[in-house]
Amino acid sequence: MNDEKKDCGCHGGDAEGHRCEHHRPHHPQRGWVGLIFLRLLDEKPMHGYQLMDELNKRGLADPEKIEPGAVYTVLRRMEHRGLLTSQWEEKETGPDRRVYSLTEEGREHLKAGLKMMLRRKAVMDDLSAYYDAHYKTQ
After folding, report:
1. pTM of the full predicted structure?
2. Measured between alpha carbons, how far is 29 from 61 in angstroms, rounded to an integer?
3. Does 38 map to a domain?
4. Domain enclosing residue 31, as ranges
5. What is the rounded average pLDDT for all residues in the chain?
6. In the chain, count of helices (H) and strands (E)?
7. I want to staple 78 with a disulfide (CB 3.0 to 4.6 A). Which of 31, 67, 83, 136 is the partner?
8. How many Å apart are CA 138 and CA 15, to the nearest integer?
9. Handedness of CA 57, 63, 69, 71 (dihedral sign)
10. What's the order of all strands across the beta sheet hosting 46-47?
11. Looking at residue 38, which CATH number applies to its domain?
């Protein structure tokens, strides 16, 4: 990674030497929430509240701890990084909603994250088997 800080213009050119989130390399292992969002959005485009509802229905998040503002912040960052796109869905009743879809880059990050998860699972399975064989009866 090039450590030189540059102004990309995304802050109106007023943040000399800044380093934006979208300039950092993506590490799927650092963002389980992002990986789950990518996984759900790979199934179908959704708006933020629909995404939160899916998280709750599938038991992937504690409903008491999901804050809509945080979800939308993650979605906006992922869109800014090119992992998602969004468009406004006009509603006849109720407010219009922003619907998020996976980009091809988002799909590649999902694939990389799932591969990483499988490697971690293999390590955990090996450690669990070792525990069962050597320490479980103690």
Report:
1. 0.70
2. 18
3. yes
4. 25-134
5. 82
6. 4, 3
7. 83
8. 59
9. negative
10. 46-47, 97-102, 84-89
11. 1.10.10.10
